[in-house]
Every structure is written in structure tokens, then in C-alpha cells.
Amino acid sequence: MKKVLVLGGSGFVGRHVCEKLNRLGIRATVPTRRAINARDVQTLPMVDVLEANVHSEADLARLIPGHDAVVLLVAILHGSAAEFERTHVELPRRVAAAMRQAGVKRLVHVSALGASTEGPSLYQKSKAGGEAVLKSSGLDVTVLRPSVIFGAEDQFLNLFARLQTVAPFVPLAGAGTRFQPVWVVDVAEAVVRSLQRPETAGQIIECTGPEVLTLAQLVQLAGRLSGHPRPVFGIPKGLALLQARLMELMPGQPLMSRDNLKSMEVDNVASGQWPGLEALGITPAAIGPAAAAYLDRLGRADPLINVRRHARR
Which of 14, 60, 66, 167 has the CA that lies 20 to 30 A from 272? Predict the structure, then answer.
């Protein structure tokens, strides 16, 4: 494999995928609406950044030819039913059609743990819809389903860490929901190893870490790592819905939406129905102090460094 198109390559997971491809000498093409959005990967010698709209059929038809494979990472956490459908279902459909037209068969798609047509949230249902589209596409597709992803610059632990630098306590919706957080570098490694292993085509792989923690425990961990631990307590469903509605009305991306609350009606942990990271030869890193020790042994940066950096500001 010599050249890969990475849709969503300027994002949180995408930057790590591009770095790993770069180290392997595999050229990556990263389309983005504005080149400045991909400045973190522009410095990599094996990455080509192109300005394009990945939702445009014409742009996809222009981008895909000449590549050996496509990685699809584009996703949203918040939005309307139409926005979820456009991003998680229609985009995979357009990508698959453009790939068939270009004669490119290999696709690695990052979906989500809990994707299900029976899921309580629009997010989960639309993710399942996208998987169904790709399953029937005739392409050689590997689907990765990660739990919540942690790492430097994540929008999860860092967000709760920043919140605890200013808030005296944290009232938390879905406090008891269980997650199996996975390190971003492990997810990126899973993408790259899937690309390198044709036999993973047709498989679903659950990407999870070794620990199961409630949302309350994760928020408490973020507070400890930031140096500003605060009391965390759960709130009843009615108050949680009101809280989420108010957050939706605030400018920018909400910390919590009503659709997020619906997602948290079910635990976000490995089902055991599908193979995990170990099937790709990956030993997943634990979150918190265990992850720091793991990374120190490998001589890499601490994945939670941003949590501590924000705490010092």
C-alpha cells in the first residue's frame, strides 16, 4: 500500500493516523475545507493537504482515484436528525459510490461502540445506518467501533478538566453510565493495522481499553489529573434533560445534548460479540496513571498532557 485518502485526517484521530502512515512511508491525502484546519499534519512530509468538500460527489470523484485505500473518520457528536443522516449515512454512501466508480475497494471506517438501529439515540442509529450502507456496498470494509477516545487534545477529559478549574462542583447527567475508554494512539494503530491486513475486510472490531469506568469516575479522574478535583454527583433524568437543553442553547458545541443523554441510557462497553484490539496485536493502554507508566516505558508523550497543561493556565 502506497497511498491512502484519509477523510477526517485533520481531526483528533486523523492526525494520529496520518503520523503513523507517515512513519511507514505511506503517502496520505487529507482533504479539508480550509488548508489551515490541517496545519498539524501539513508538516508531515508524506501528507498532502487538499482543499475540498468531502460531502461533494464531484470532489469525492476527483479525490479518490489514484489511492489504494480510503479511511473514513468524519463524524459528529451533536446535531439534528438531518445532520446525523448527512454525516453518518449519506457521506458513507457517497464515498462508497465514488470508490466503486474509481475502482478502489479497500475502506477502513471508524464507527462507534453501541452503533445500533435499536439504539436510543440518533447518533447510535445513524452510525448503524452508515455501517449498513458500507456492508452492502461491495467494498472490502473493516469497521472499527471505539468507545470514548482519550488523549492529548481530546474533547472529553480535557473538557471536564477545564470545567473543574472554574466550577466548585460538577452536577452530572448519566453519572452511572459505564464506558471503556480507549487511547487515541491505539485507535490510530488499529486503523493502520487494518489497512495492512486485507483479511480484516468484512470484520467489525471493537476498540476499547482495559478498564470499565463510570462517567462520574472519568470526570473525577480528569479533576485529579488537572489538579482541581471537585465533588461530582449525579442528577435525576428530568433535571438532566433540562441541563442538556440549556447547554444546547449556549454558543459553540454543547458539553451535553439531549441526544447524548439518550446514548447514555445504555453502557458503552465491549459486547464481546466482536473481536477487540488484541485481534490486531494491540495491547490497549489504560487510562490515568497506568497509561502514563505505559507511555513512559515506550518513551512517548503523556496522552493526558493537555489536561495538566490546562490546569497550569
Answer: 14
